[in-house]
């Protein structure tokens, strides 16, 4: 079976080139272009000049600071430190490595330093082409492994979606952005603040009611991403953020009776009372699949 690898569509991925108008943080971290802007933060590509001076191969970095919307918030720096405190405790090949937290005294800016990840957002790859099923299987396994590890460490990610996932040219998956993640053992932040920061289309519906991010809400988001990996479509199709918030959704379509279909159906139940899928089940199902299972597509 001839499977096209994602590396064939990521030929434009290069090491970061810094713009001429860079700025320096804490006398060490050289900032370049903006990589992404979210509800709570801005991420820049950059260089750790100290590591560069000593010839380190991994001197390219990503630097996150709070967004303009949160810049004047009294707890803005604390939010960023909480992300560092939580994310730096997680050591897994499918999770971004958070290296350092610091405050630039000159600019009065708190920031996080993370590993630079070569690749493209999963959202962009899904937009470009239908991902081959065998490659989708490899990516789905990595996503489940990374999120399972988070849960084993007592952490809920809270914002799992294709724009928070990077795929490298050799099809390695990295999940990032722990901006609204939480420890299961600690009181949760105001869930309405969380909803404003996360993507409604990948957020579990109970988050719009009175619930806080949990293992079950992460499972829902993981199932949304996996469904889209294999089908090329969001499970709730053209449902908008506004429609999701008012529970006006389209039921996902499955055409074959298969173990993965069954697991995803359970994980995508709109009512959390009926949702019984867990990541151990998904891991077992995905681990049992082989190339021979992909002779025909399961989905639309």
UniProtKB/TrEMBL annotation:
* InterPro entries hit by this protein: Atg1-like (IPR045269), Kinase-like_dom_sf (IPR011009), Prot_kinase_dom (IPR000719), Protein_kinase_ATP_BS (IPR017441), Ser/Thr_kinase_AS (IPR008271)
Pfam families in the record: Pkinase
Q: Which residues bind ATP?
A: 64
| This protein's GO CC annotations | autophagosome; cytosol; membrane; phagophore assembly site
Q: Which GO terms describe its molecular function?
A: ATP binding; protein serine/threonine kinase activity
Keyword set for this entry? ATP-binding, Kinase, Nucleotide-binding, Serine/threonine-protein kinase, Transferase
* Residue ranges annotated for the Protein kinase domain, each copy included: 29-286
Q: What is this protein called?
A: Serine/threonine protein kinase
In its UniProt entry, the species of origin is given as Tolumonas auensis (strain DSM 9187 / NBRC 110442 / TA 4)
Give the taxonomic lineage as stored in the record.
Answer: Bacteria, Pseudomonadati, Pseudomonadota, Gammaproteobacteria, Aeromonadales
């Amino acid at each position: 079976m001839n499977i096209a690898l994602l590396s064939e569509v990521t030929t434009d991925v290069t090491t970061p080139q810094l713009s001429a108008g860079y700025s320096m943080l804490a006398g060490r971290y050289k900032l370049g272009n903006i990589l992404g802007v979210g509800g709570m933060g801005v991420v820049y590509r950059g260089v750790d000049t100290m590591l560069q001076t000593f010839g380190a191969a991994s001197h390219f970095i990503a630097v996150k600071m709070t967004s303009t919307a949160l810049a004047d918030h009294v707890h803005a720096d604390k939010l960023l430190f909480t992300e560092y405190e939580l994310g730096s405790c997680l050591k897994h090949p499918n999770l971004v490595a958070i290296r350092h937290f610091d405050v630039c005294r000159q600019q009065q800016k708190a920031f996080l330093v993370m590993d630079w990840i070569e690749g493209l957002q999963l959202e962009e790859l899904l937009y470009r082409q239908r991902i081959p099923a065998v490659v989708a299987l490899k990516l789905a396994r990595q996503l489940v492994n990374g999120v399972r590890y988070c849960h084993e460490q007592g952490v809920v990610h809270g914002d799992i979606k294709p724009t928070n996932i990077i795929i490298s040219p050799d099809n390695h998956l990295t999940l990032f952005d722990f901006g609204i993640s939480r420890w299961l053992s600690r009181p949760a932040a105001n869930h309405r603040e969380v909803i404003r920061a996360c993507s409604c289309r990948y957020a579990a519906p109970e988050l719009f009611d009175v619930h806080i991010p949990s293992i079950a809400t992460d499972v829902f988001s993981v199932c949304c991403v996996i469904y889209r990996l294999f089908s090329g479509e969001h499970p709730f199709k053209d449902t908008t953020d506004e429609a999701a918030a008012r529970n006006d959704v389209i039921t996902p379509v499955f055409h074959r009776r298969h173990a993965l279909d069954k697991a995803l159906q359970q994980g995508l139940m709109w009512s959390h009372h009926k949702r019984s899928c867990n990541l151990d089940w998904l891991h077992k199902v995905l681990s049992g699949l082989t190339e021979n299972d992909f002779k025909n597509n399961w989905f639309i």
